[in-house]
Task: inverse folding
């Protein structure tokens, strides 16, 4: 069923009912499916096992009883992961404006650099580059973040091809 036929049933439907993202296929897969799922995983990990989530931020630390401060910081970090997933879904599934998508991805790339820098400062050089010693959270904090950063840069520089052109769906008066 095409969009025109769907509008017969729902005259308020504007844009692509499934996904209006203009991203080329690979970045679309990464930023609209994989990244939100990874962020939801971070959210759930922080809520389901806060102690392990907090201790696992630094490889080789075994879980200890959490202070109230550590617990609230871990839960707030998990909440931020949930927020990132919701923002990604909200922005990338609802707009076909190139400027909005690009600005969103530039902001995420800047946040990726900050995320990597903080992880580097806390872990130190030796642990940061010790890929064999990484636990699952180090893979998320370093490996996945670096992959997302490089994919953002690839998209922003045109490495994955041109954006998909979406026909205007604005109603005319």
Result:
């Amino acid at each position: 069923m095409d969009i025109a036929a769907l509008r017969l049933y729902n005259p308020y439907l504007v844009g692509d009912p499934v996904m209006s993202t203009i991203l080329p296929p690979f970045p679309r897969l990464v930023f609209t499916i994989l990244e939100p799922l990874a962020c939801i995983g971070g959210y759930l990990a922080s809520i389901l096992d806060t102690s392990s989530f907090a201790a696992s931020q630094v490889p080789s630390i075994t879980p200890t009883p959490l202070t109230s401060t550590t617990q609230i910081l871990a839960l707030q970090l998990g909440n931020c992961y949930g927020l990132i997933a919701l923002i990604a879904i909200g922005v990338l599934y609802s707009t076909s404006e190139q400027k909005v998508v690009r600005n969103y991805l530039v902001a995420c790339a800047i946040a990726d650099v900050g995320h990597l820098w903080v992880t580097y400062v806390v872990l130190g050089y030796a642990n940061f580059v010790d890929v064999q010693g990484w636990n699952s959270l180090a893979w998320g904090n370093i490996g996945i973040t670096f992959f997302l950063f490089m994919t953002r840069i690839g998209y922003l520089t045109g490495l994955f091809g041109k954006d998909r052109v979406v026909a205007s769906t604005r109603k005319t008066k």
User: Anything to note?
Assistant: The two ends are 26 Å apart (CA to CA). The first helix runs from residue 3 to 9. Helices lie at 3-9, 25-48, 50-55, 68-92, 98-129, 136-156. Residues 6-13 have pLDDT under 50 and may be disordered.
